[in-house]
Amino acid sequence: MTIIMGVNFNEKKLVRAPSLSYDANKKELSPDNEPTLQKALESFYGLGPQLAARIMAKNTIHPLARLGSVPPKTITALTAELSTMTIENDARRIVQDNIKRLRDMGTIRGRRHAMGLPVRGQRTRTQIETAKRLNTLERGGTYSKI
Amino acid sequence: MASANCWRCLARPSQRLLVPASLLSTPPTPASAATFTTSAQLRAVKAGSKDDVNLSRHIRAGKNLILGKKKKRPADKGKPPASGERKAFRKRIQLSNNNALEVPGLSEMTAENIVDPSSVGKILGLPEVVLDQLRASEAFKPTQTWGLFRSPHTLIRAETVDLAKQLTDAIGKKETLRLVITGDRATGKSMLGLQALATGFMNNWIVINIPEGQELTTAATEYSQIHNSEQFSQPVYTVKLFQAIFKANQHILSQYKVEMDHMHLPISVNRGMTLAALANVTKEPEFAWPVFQAFWKELLLPGRPPIMFALDGLSHIMRVSDYRSPSFELIHSHDLSLLRLFTDALGGKTTFANGAAILGVCTKGNNPIIPSMEKALEQAAAAQAGEPIPPRDPFFKKYDERVFDALRGVRILNVKGVSKPEARALMEYWAASGILRLRVDEKNVSEKWTLAGCGILGEMERAALYDVRSPV
Question: What stretches pass through the bilayer (chain A) (predicted)?
């Protein structure tokens, strides 16, 4: 197990993978037989493929590297780098504060966020699954699906 | 109102049914069963006692379609292959096949007969020792059809003798032969490379082989920046290469001793240590590149054996690689240290005191199109033939000067199809191995030779051995 920013990762995990799908529920602990095509860096909230690629290039890690093959020195450097970035709860708080501000002002956008409905004037008869999934006051929080 | 007729199929009961049953000699059938067919009885017999009277269903001759009942597939109980197992199976190299017939009367390849023009068109076996060395240096490819034959043999073609002669002549004069093997798809370029490596092993040269250029440039192996330099080393690959060099050249390397002081190395290397020990001294990726540099310096000292440095998949290393530098710019392949070593040698920047052969083998399977490389090879071929050198396209901006540097003044060996006598020798070998079920005569040889686009070897295999080769 390798620990980055206090999160345990399986050794076989790719540091960064080309695909983009990720299920956040699996992040905290991953059993050993977890499919290896998960990402470690991109699993942090607020850190996407672009930033991950840059961080990896900065530490000269190739895109298909698995965590087991990255030397401990580099892991420490990664942790140090990540600790200076606005990711995880800091990033969540920014988003949540923005939504909260809208709600407190009593704007339509804030209200729609609170109701879990589309915010920008879309129809609501059908096709509001994304809004249902994402729009909450606690966006990106414990009960949110991202 | 009930009708005597069948409702569904509108068949009329035959006259036989209307006759009272007592008048019939045959045992009576149930009234609901149709008599124009025997399938009811057959079915009743088949089903046994369980539902022999359950004939209320309508019965029809032939197949009946049953809808709505899906058969459940039994769950697959086999274990799924472990990670890496499938790839290992795909990449496995099988060099013998006990089902194939042994071909009597074929001699073994030696350092002498490979340069002998009279062995053109002969099939020669690879000696056991060379086989191990070739295997260690990964000269065999999974796409080649070694697995169809009893033991590995190769066809000696005119190009083979020509190449072997060029190699031995240049090294005999302590010169450096820089050569690029090119040619159409499936003409046997890699096989020619293998024969060249075999020549190297049989002449006791130090053979270094990079089996796939693209392994180094597709960003699939570790890389790290070299301190105080713009280059990047590939430590894990270097360790792997060291292992291959050690295994393949152990008996030569162990005859020579380290002669220089390597103070800067992170591990202690003493004078008097053998070169084999130096090649095997580190498995630590961190130290791999400095040690490799030391090893290379030792090899370049006068009085060492000649070097053969070969790389397959030349076009893959003539482009910008997929690696990124810390400033997030793409790294040119020639900034990867191991490839820089090769391109410097190929471009003539390195001087070899003991003679050397630097071989670049092109590949046409999945190669990227690189205009600079094509132009450089064209120019080199024209220079070799003594023709006017074709100029670069003045309106094309993206020529890569480093590619021209790397290919400056190389010799070109353009591989084409085999001649008909060579094709015949090959087909006779196939037939003697029991793989080709065909009379090998003038007509059949001509037919396969023509089908294969004037004797392109890969196509000849496809035309002749299509049904037996492995599905790769």
Answer: none
